[in-house]
C-alpha cells in the first residue's frame, strides 16, 4: 500500500478545498440548512460541473468520472471539513453503487447519467432507522431489519394489474429523504414464511402514496426525513435474482470508508479552527496557544486525527480490492476505520468546545456545528464499541477463545 496521493487525487483535494473555501463559510452553511432542500442547490450544480462531484464514482460510459473509492473518500473529507450540507453521501455513496451493481442496463442508462449531471439525487430508504444494521456494520444483516416479522418495516406486493409493485410501510432517519429525486427502498416481499428483501426504485415527484417529512435533527447539516409509503407504485431494481442483504453488506464496506472520511474531515476542520483561535485569544498578555498545557492538548488531537486518516486510507485500499484478502480485509478495516474516525471526531469536538472557553458553549458559535456533527454521527452510524465488536467478529478474533472456554459472546 502506497499512502501517497496521486497527482489526480491531489488535484481533486486542492480543487474542492479552494472552491469550498470561497463558497461555504459558516454563514453559508447556516443559510443552506434552512432552505427547503436542506442544502445549496445552486452550489451543488456548480460542484456537478467542476469537479464533477455527483458523478465522481459513476462509470465514464454513463457520463461520470469513473474514479474509485479513494477519490470519493477524499471528496467526502473535504466537504465535511466545512460541514457542507449536500446529498453527496446519500447519492454517490449509497444509491449509485447499488444501481450500478444490481440495476438492469436500462435502469443504469436511465438513472446514472442524471445523477452524474447533478440533475438527480438519491436516498436509500431502510426501515426502522437501522442503516448500520442493514449495511452489516454493527451485526449480521440477515434481513430482520427490513421487517422480517409479521408486521413492521416496508412491505411490497405485486400491483393488481400485474405490472410493477406497490409499497407500504414507513422508514425514519432517511438521509436526504425529504429532497431526493430517487428513493431506493428496501422492502420485504413473499409473505412471512418465504419472505425476502428486495430493492425498489421510486421517483416520488408526482407519485401518489408517498409522504416525506423532514425531521428536526441534532445535526442540521445532515438532513434526515421520515418516508411513509401507502400503496406507492414502484419498480423492482434489477431482475430480483440478487441477494440484496449480501449486496448491502458489500456496500457497507465502502460506505464505512466514506462515513469515516467525513468524520476525519470534520475533526480536521474543528481542529484547524481551534488552533487558529488559540493563536489569537490572549490571556495574561500572551496567546493561550503558547501555554505548554494547551500545546500538549492540541498535539494529542492532531495525532488522533492523523491516526484516523491513516485508518481510512487503509480501509479504502482494502475495500478497493487491493488487499490480498479483499473481502475479509475490507469487512474488518471499514468498521474499524469508522469507529476510529468517530472517536477522533468526538474527542476533537469536545476539546474544541473546551479550548474555546465560554464562547464555545454557545449554540451560535461555529464550533457547535462540529460538536453536533460528532454527537449525531455516533448515534446514526455507531456506537463505536459495536462497530469494533462487529469488526472483531468478522476477523474471527475470539473464535479460538470461545471454543476453548465454551462460552457464548
From TrEMBL:
Keyword Secreted: no
Cofactor(s) essential for the protein: FAD
Start and end residues of each Acyl-CoA dehydrogenase/oxidase N-terminal domain: 6-119
Signal peptide annotation: none
One Pfam family of this chain: Acyl-CoA_dh_1
Limits of the Acyl-CoA dehydrogenase/oxidase C-terminal domain: 257-392
CDD domains linked to this entry: ACAD (cd00567)
Keywords: FAD, Flavoprotein, Oxidoreductase
Coiled-coil spans in chain: none
Family membership: Belongs to the acyl-CoA dehydrogenase family.
PANTHER family per the UniProt record, alphabetical: ACYL-COA DEHYDROGENASE, ACYL-COA DEHYDROGENASE FADE28
Protein name from the UniProt record: Acyl-CoA dehydrogenase family protein
Organism: Streptomyces stramineus
Amino acid at each position: 500500500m502506497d499512502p501517497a496521493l496521486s497527482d489526480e487525487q491531489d488535484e481533486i483535494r486542492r480543487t474542492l478545498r479552494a472552491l469550498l473555501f470561497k463558497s461555504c463559510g459558516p454563514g453559508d452553511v447556516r443559510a443552506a440548512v434552512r432552505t427547503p432542500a436542506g442544502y445549496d442547490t445552486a452550489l451543488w450544480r456548480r460542484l456537478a460541473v467542476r469537479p464533477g462531484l455527483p458523478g465522481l464514482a459513476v462509470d465514464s460510459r454513463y457520463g461520470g468520472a469513473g474514479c474509485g473509492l479513494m477519490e470519493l473518500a477524499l471528496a467526502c473529507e473535504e466537504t465535511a471539513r466545512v460541514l457542507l450540507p449536500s446529498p453527496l453521501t446519500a447519492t454517490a455513496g449509497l444509491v449509485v453503487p447499488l444501481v450500478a451493481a444490481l440495476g438492469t442496463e436500462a435502469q443504469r442508462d436511465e438513472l446514472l447519467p442524471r445523477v452524474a449531471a447533478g440533475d438527480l439525487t438519491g436516498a436509500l430508504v431502510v426501515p426502522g432507522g437501522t442503516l448500520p444494521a442493514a449495511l452489516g456494520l454493527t451485526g449480521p444483516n440477515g434481513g430482520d431489519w427490513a421487517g422480517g416479522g409479521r408486521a413492521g418495516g416496508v412491505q411490497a406486493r405485486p400491483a393488481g394489474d400485474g405490472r410493477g409493485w406497490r409499497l407500504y410501510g414507513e422508514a425514519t432517519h432517511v438521509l436526504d429523504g425529504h429532497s431526493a429525486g430517487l428513493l431506493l427502498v428496501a422492502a420485504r416481499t413473499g409473505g412471512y414464511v418465504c419472505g425476502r428483501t428486495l430493492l425498489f426504485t421510486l421517483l416520488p415527484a408526482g407519485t401518489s402514496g408517498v409522504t416525506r417529512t423532514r425531521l428536526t435533527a441534532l445535526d442540521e447539516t445532515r438532513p434526515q426525513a421520515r418516508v411513509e409509503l401507502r400503496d406507492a407504485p414502484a419498480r423492482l431494481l434489477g431482475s430480483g435474482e440478487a441477494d440484496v442483504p449480501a449486496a448491502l453488506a458489500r456496500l457497507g464496506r465502502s460506505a464505512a470508508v466514506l462515513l469515516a472520511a467525513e468524520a476525519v474531515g470534520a475533526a480536521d476542520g474543528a481542529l484547524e479552527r481551534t488552533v487558529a483561535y488559540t493563536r489569537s485569544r490572549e490571556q495574561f498578555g500572551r496567546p493561550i496557544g503558547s501555554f505548554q498545557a494547551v500545546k500538549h492538548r492540541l498535539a494529542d488531537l492532531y495525532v488522533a486525527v492523523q491516526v484516523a486518516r491513516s485508518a481510512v486510507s487503509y480501509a479504502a485500499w482494502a475495500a478497493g480490492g487491493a488487499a490480498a484478502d479483499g473481502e475479509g480485509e475490507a469487512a474488518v478495516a471499514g468498521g474499524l476505520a469508522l469507529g476510529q474516525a468517530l472517536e477522533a471526531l468526538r474527542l476533537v469536538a469536545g476539546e474544541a468546545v473546551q479550548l474555546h472557553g465560554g464562547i464555545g458553549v454557545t449554540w451560535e458559535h461555529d464550533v457547535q456545528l462540529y460538536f453536533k456533527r460528532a454527537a449525531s454521527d455516533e448515534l446514526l452510524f455507531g456506537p463505536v464499541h459495536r462497530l469494533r465488536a462487529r469488526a472483531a467478529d468478522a476477523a474471527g478474533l475470539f473464535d479460538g477463545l470461545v471454543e476453548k472456554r465454551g462460552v457464548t459472546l
